[in-house]
Design goal:
Pfam family, one: Glucosamine_iso
Structural class: alpha/beta
GO cellular component, one term: cytoplasm
GO biological process, one term: glucosamine catabolic process
Radius of gyration: 17 Å
CATH topology: Rossmann fold
Number of strands: 11
Oligomer: single chain
CATH class: Alpha Beta
Organism: Persicitalea jodogahamensis
Shape: globular
Order of helices and strands: EEHEHEEHEHEEHEHEHEHH
Number of helices: 9
Strand order of the largest sheet: 1-2-11-10-7-3-4-6
GO molecular function, one term: identical protein binding
C-alpha cells in the first residue's frame, strides 16, 4: 500500500472519531490504510487477526484499496461477513458472500473465510453455527457501513437491540433497507429484493475491539446526520458507535453534508 498524506478534516462526537476526506477514492484509501495499520499493530502481539467485513457498493473504494495491499500478511487474517440474504443463490451477484469473494477474498491470500449460508435448511441452526465461530474467534476489527435508515449490518430500527442476547439472528428487512438495494443498483426492482436475511446483531459488532465505518455518497447524508446528532438509541442504530471506545467514521463531502467540521456540527445542534 502506498503511504501518502490525505487531506482530512477530523473531529470527534463523543467517542467516535470522524474523518472527512476530499473524495471517495481518498476516503477508501485512508480507511484501508487505517485498517492495515491496525492489523499490523495487532499482529505484533497475536498470531491471527479476525475481521468482519460489510458488503455494499459503499465499500467499493475501501475494498479495492485493501485488495491492492499486497504487502499485508493476509495469511494471518480470518474473515467473516456481517449479513446474508435468505433464499438467494450463493453465487448470485447480490449475495453478500459472493460480493466479498469477488471484491477481496479471491484477490488476496487470506488465511480463512467463514461464509454465512442464506440457503441453509434451518436458518436458526445456521445462526447458531456462525455464532459459535464468532465466539471461537473473537472479533478484532469490524469494517462496516451505515444504511439509509441508520442500520448497521441488517439491524434495522425495528429489529435493533443494543442488548441482543444472540450474536446472529434472522430478520425481516425494513422497507427502506430493501429500497436501498434498488437505489444502490443491486436489484432492478423492489419485488426482486429478498424480504429476510441473516445478520450479525449489534452486540456481535460492538464487542469488536476496533470499528472502521466507511460511508460515502449523498444518499447517506441524512443517515450520517442522525448518527452524529441524534440521541443514542435503537431508532438510529448507528448512533451506538459513539459509545464504542475505538471507532472511526470515514466520510466524503457528500455524505458529510453540513457536518463536515466539528464547528458546523455544534452549530447545527445549538
Amino acid at each position: 500500500m502506498t503511504f501518502k498524506m490525505y487531506s482530512a478534516r477530523s473531529f470527534e462526537v463523543e467517542n467516535l472519531q470522524v474523518e472527512v476526506l476530499e473524495n471517495r477514492p481518498e476516503m477508501g484509501a485512508l480507511a484501508a490504510l487505517s485498517v492495515t495499520q491496525k492489523i499490523r499493530e495487532l499482529l505484533l502481539t497475536q498470531e491471527k487477526v479476525n475481521i468482519i467485513f460489510a458488503s455494499a457498493p459503499s465499500q467499493n473504494e475501501f475494498l479495492a484499496a485493501m485488495a491492492a495491499n499486497v504487502n499485508l500478511e493476509w495469511n494471518k487474517v480470518r474473515a467473516f461477513h456481517m449479513d446474508e440474504y435468505i433464499g438467494l443463490p450463493s453465487d448470485a451477484p447480490q449475495s453478500f458472500g459472493e460480493y466479498l469473494r469477488e471484491k477481496l477474498f479471491s484477490k488476496v491470500p487470506i488465511n480463512e473465510v467463514f461464509y454465512l449460508d442464506g440457503n441453509a435448511p434451518d436458518p436458526g441452526a445456521e445462526c447458531r453455527r456462525y455464532a459459535e465461530l464468532l465466539a471461537k474467534y473473537p472479533t478484532d476489527i469490524v469494517c462496516m457501513g451505515i444504511g439509509e435508515n441508520c442500520h448497521i449490518a441488517f439491524n434495522d430500527p425495528h429489529a435493533a437491540d443494543f442488548d441482543d442476547p444472540d450474536l446472529v439472528k434472522e430478520v425481516k428487512l425494513d422497507l427502506r433497507s430493501r429500497e436501498q438495494q434498488v437505489h444502490d443498483g443491486c436489484f432492478p426492482s423492489l419485488d426482486q429484493v429478498p424480504v429476510s436475511a441473516l445478520t450479525l446483531t449489534i452486540p456481535a459488532l460492538t464487542r469488536a475491539r476496533h470499528l472502521f465505518c466507511v460511508v460515502p455518497g449523498s444518499t447517506k447524508t441524512v443517515a450520517v446526520s442522525h448518527t452524529l446528532s441524534e440521541p443514542v438509541s435503537k431508532e438510529f442504530p448507528a448512533t451506538i458507535m459513539r459509545r464504542h471506545p475505538s471507532a472511526t467514521l470515514f466520510l466524503d463531502p457528500e455524505s458529510a453534508g453540513k457536518f463536515s467540521t466539528r464547528s458546523q456540527l455544534f452549530q447545527s445542534l445549538n
